[in-house]
Specification:
The protein is an alpha/beta fold and about 550 residues long. Helix content is about 45%, strand content about 15%. The protein folds into three domains: about 5-115 and about 260-350, HUPs (Rossmann fold), CATH 3.40.50; about 125-260, Beta Complex (Methionyl-trna Synthetase, domain 2); about 365-545, Orthogonal Bundle (Isoleucyl-tRNA Synthetase, Domain 1), CATH 1.10.730.
Length: about 550
Amino acid sequence: MRPPRPAEDDRPVLVLGPNPTPNGGMHLGHIAGPYLAGDVYARYQRARGRKVVFTTGTDDSQTFVVASAQRLGVGPEELCRTSTELIREALTAIGISFDGFGPFDQTYQQTVLDYFRALHAAGKFRLKTVRMPYLERTGEFIVEGLIEGECPVCLATCRGGLCETCCHPNNFDELLNPHSTIDPRDVPVVRETTILVLPMEEYREELTAYHEQWSSYWRPHLVQMVRDVLSRPLQDLPITYPLAWGMPAPFPETPGQVLNAWLELIPAGMYTSSYAAAQLGRQTTPGQLWLPEENMRIVHFLGFDNAYFFALTHMALLMAHGQKYIRPEWVLTNEFYELESEKFSTSKRHVLSVQELLEEMPRDPARLYLALTAPEYQRTTFSRAGLDKVSRERLVEPWNRLADIIGKAVANASGATPVLPVSAVGRARVATMLARFDFNYEMPNYSLNRCADTILTQIGRLGRLADTLDGHGLDDEPEAWGDLILQVSALLALSAPILIDLAEAARQAGGFDGVLSPAAFDVAEVAAFVPPLLSLAATAAGAASVAGR
């Protein structure tokens, strides 16, 4: 089955962002990848008149919380609480327009447990005795964020369970030269334990068919990873772990064990999508929006380092439920975003938070630069010099000159605000703009980089057109001015998913009504208006508020 052409696909859209681990705040490396990409996509879909549910929620069960809490000398519950506040603050400050940020509450946990109880009752899991790393000093097994070593596939340094570099699993005792992440001097031994697993090999045929259907529409690195993993025997997926932190596993065969935290994320998405729908005025049961009869399309944004879980293990778990739930159609991954060509590192204090950036400049230039440099296909870097240069020379100064030229012409017009004629050429230019932006905003070509670059290209083009009219009154060349103002109005609408505060100011100035369709700009005349200006000066209000949709 080929996906419908995006222009013809008006099904409701469920946009999923990754579930942030509440073991600290958010830096720009987090935002520049899946959160900004998901936000811009959701905003564009809303502007096209489609029903959208955009959601996520924190992933409190992760062992990374335990490791970070012990290093900080606080309890994991306290770290989750304070980190969730910082995460929500950062997402709001940069303007990520989640319809609902689901809390880690009793309903969340019940949704996850019900999801796995159904699979257990259907006999999908197997008991298996495995060898796992064990710290004799503490009497604890260590997995995931509690252990570090070398990846058995690519030899990169990685944590347990999954390598962030090659994205291959390393379950059980496969890490080379392992040690504790809490105290690197602690070297584990290996001890047998019995857990529940999902035999992934049983889903090879379905997984292969699913990826063959969709892989030609996904980014190459994800496709290569999936093919590489499928070329080898698929590892059994741990369903439970003998740990103290996490959601208690409700299975009689594994008393005292917890669910593998990585596997919560799809039922968590079912819960948070229901939570978000309620914020939009529709009450649903958790998982209801994932039923085929809802006719939704799922678009999932995530970092490549998590792609194995979402593209393979979570798909296998959905397949284990039979045809009960739909599956993501579009999975967009991103690579790592670096700070001045070096990996973000909280421990080395090589980090820049959203809040710190917004103390330096407004969020519109920040969002545009992050979109322009987002790591879509390879690692990219945040550069303060690059941010300053792009923001000043390619965005703010040329836009403000364009706005000033139009503002001066409108101010010098006689009488009431004029309504100007638009030529066929002007309407054709707008139609071309709409088509080009739609190509970049829609699947399968969706690209933050190209959206941002197209905004800057159009600002430059319209600025040159304005220069030719500078000094000429609206009465002298009304059609030329009408063509320019219609194109500026279209650009404001088309850049609104990224330049959210400029778009809100333009709405208030009468520049456009937020509707994005060819019919909205296929007009014979346009009312003159003065475009709002952009600034490079940070404001507390701009950093703390979210622009209207």
